Amino acid sequence: MSIVLAHLIWMWSGIVAAALSCLYGFWRGGKTERLGAAILAVGWALSLALTSHAGHGPGMAIMVIDSTVTVAFAVLSLWSRKIWTLVATACMFNDILTHVLASATKMSLFDYITATGLWSGWGPVIALAIGVWLHNRRTKA
Q1: Structure pTM?
Q2: Which residue in 7, 28, 62, 111 has its CB near the most CB atoms, within 10 A?
Q3: Rg, Å, the chain Cα set
Q4: How many separate domains does the chain show?
Q5: Residue 57, C-beta contacts closer than 8 angstroms, at least 6 positions apart
Q6: Range of the domain at 130
Q7: For 101-141, what is each residue's pLDDT tens digit?
Q8: Would you state the pLDDT for residue 56?
Q9: Whole-angstrom distance, CA of residue 115 vs CA of residue 117
């Protein structure tokens, strides 16, 4: 499998997973999960729209978006006291650290894409999906 094909699979599977997780949050989540889905959906949409493919590392727009999403999840976590929001916040904070390290070191593009895909992509997406699932489990009991 070529690196380009692997990257396309990685990217599009993340976009589909984020869309499904956000839809699940809006459909079956409580207030916290719906707010988390909105934060995640807006962050993903803005990131996809404003991503620059020129050069190595994130552009300033992505740093601002990811920092804003991190603060929003931190506020949501403090307000709701739900563990999934803390996990999403931690993942986003690690993403910001990855941006800083990529700018300060000679991190390879493959490592950078993989790390940011995990921290700002799959981490919050999975945390939200688990949060919605736990909310449904609590409300049915």
Answers
A1: 0.91
A2: 62
A3: 15
A4: 1
A5: 99, 102, 103, 112
A6: 3-140
A7: 988 998 888 888 889 989 999 999 999 999 999 999 999 86
A8: 56
A9: 5
**What tokens were used for 94?**
């690690």
Burial class (CB in 10 A: 0-12, 13-18, 19+), 26: middle
Residue 42: φ, ψ to 5°: -65, -45
Q: Tell whether the torsion through CA atoms of 26, 29, 30 and 35 is positive or negative.
A: negative
What span, in angstroms and rounded, lies between the C-alpha atoms of 132 and 116? 23
The Cα–Cα gap between 77 and 86 comes to 6
Average pLDDT in the 12-24 region? Answer: 95
Residues 127/81, Cβ–Cβ less than 8 Å: no
Confidence band, pLDDT 50/70/90 cuts, at residue 1: low
State which amino acid sits at residue 17. A
Q: Read off the tokens for 126.
A: 């999975």
Cα dihedral angle (92, 41, 48, 111), rounded to 10 degrees?
Answer: 30
Token pair listed for 119: 């921290």
